[in-house]
Design a protein that fits this description.
Layout (H helix, E strand, L loop, with lengths): L4 E5 L9 H18 L3 E4 L13 H10 L5 E8 L5 H14 L4 E6 L6 H7 L10 H12 L20 E5 L2 H10 L3 E3 L8 H11 L11 E9 L3 H19 L19 H10 L4 E3 L1 H15 L3 E5 L5 H12 L7
Parallel strand pairs: 1-2, 1-9, 2-3, 3-4, 4-5, 5-6, 6-7, 7-8, 7-9
């Protein structure tokens, strides 16, 4: 059993490193992903986070697309309520013109930041989650072939027909993706609770569209592969610290791993980590292959998108290479 694997890159700003280092690391990861046969690499929009460098998502996508030749690149995702649909059509239309046949546009409706920063991002807050479906339709309109007499045309953007994806962690996004006939990616890597319900609703209510004639489900999974289970567990403490910091309202760069997480992890932290990261797959190649196979069989997803939250870039590149070599990824 094999299926396409893709990578989700948050362009982590590692503790002790710079923003420039983070963006160079994203370039290296994209190059490694292409060499290893990953289907696509996506970047996520986050703002005012000291550990994430991909706030200007379309700009970073141009950076990694220029370093590669064939791997699909895209957003996982652009938070559409933060933007005018026309601006996103122009940005991604530019990418699609520069890198034809390679661009995906994944959309989300969360702010991707705190509300104070969300207010600073938007000229006003009228473009909020309530207008999200209309904003998606408007974006589709700008990316389609222009109609006779159309007053507003995205240049670039019009006639690019960039494939849209809806991303989410709730039943709402599953219902909307099904109604619009769009592929759906569920954020089970950080919001596991409604994974199976969302997939079931999406598949059972899907309506075919010009983009998709049948449902297509992707699920997000955190993966850390190393030579041993113990080493992988050590590397995984970086993202565990990140979630602990988020819980405490602490905004820091992506932490170095620690030998003993229990020294800084309360019982409440441990319960939170066990819950939120329940689908994380951490270990040696054999361990990871076994656990990922179980996840794929349980969800029957069409594609996996994998986040590799590893502080050291060389260990991150090695993890991506080792995962591709497990034999469960179609190339």
């Amino acid at each position: 059993m094999t299926l396409p694997f893709s990578l989700l890159d948050l362009a982590p700003i590692a503790e002790g490193a710079s923003l420039a280092d983070a963006l160079e690391n994203s370039r290296q990861l994209a190059v490694q992903a292409e060499k290893s046969g990953y289907h696509r690499i996506w970047l996520a929009e986050h703002h005012a986070m000291h550990g994430v460098a991909s706030s200007a998502t379309s700009v970073v996508l141009g950076h990694i697309a220029a370093a590669t030749k064939s791997i699909r690149i895209g957003s996982g995702g652009v938070m559409l309520p933060n933007h005018s649909p026309l601006v996103i059509a122009e940005q991604f239309g530019t990418l699609a013109t520069l890198f034809p046949g390679r661009v995906d546009l994944g959309l989300g409706r969360a702010p991707g930041t705190d509300m104070a920063t969300a207010r600073a991002l938007r000229r006003n807050l009228n473009s909020d989650v309530d207008s999200y479906p209309e904003d998606i339709r408007e974006l589709q309109h700008y990316l389609a072939a222009p109609q006779s007499g159309q007053r507003i045309v995205a240049v670039p953007g019009a006639n690019t027909h960039i494939p849209l994806w809806l991303l989410g962690s709730s039943l709402y996004s599953a219902q909307l993706a099904a109604k619009f006939g769009l592929p759906y990616s569920f954020a089970s890597h950080f919001a596991p609770d409604q994974l199976f319900d969302a997939i079931n609703i999406y598949r059972s209510t899907f309506q075919a569209s010009t983009q998709c004639d049948k449902p297509y489900v992707m699920a997000g999974v955190m993966v850390v592969v190393a030579d041993t289970d113990e080493e992988a567990t050590y590397l995984f403490t970086s993202v565990q610290q990140q979630f602990m910091n988020m819980r405490r309202g602490v905004n820091r760069p992506f932490a170095r791993p620690v030998d003993d997480l229990s020294q800084i992890c309360s019982a409440a932290d441990q319960a939170m980590l066990s819950h939120i990261l329940r689908y994380a797959v951490v270990g040696s190649s054999d361990t990871v292959a076994q656990k990922l196979t179980q996840f794929i069989q349980a969800t029957e997803v069409d594609e996996l998108i994998v986040s590799m939250p590893i502080h050291n870039v060389q260990a991150r590149l090695k993890s991506a290479k080792m995962l591709a070599q497990t034999g469960i990824m179609s190339i």
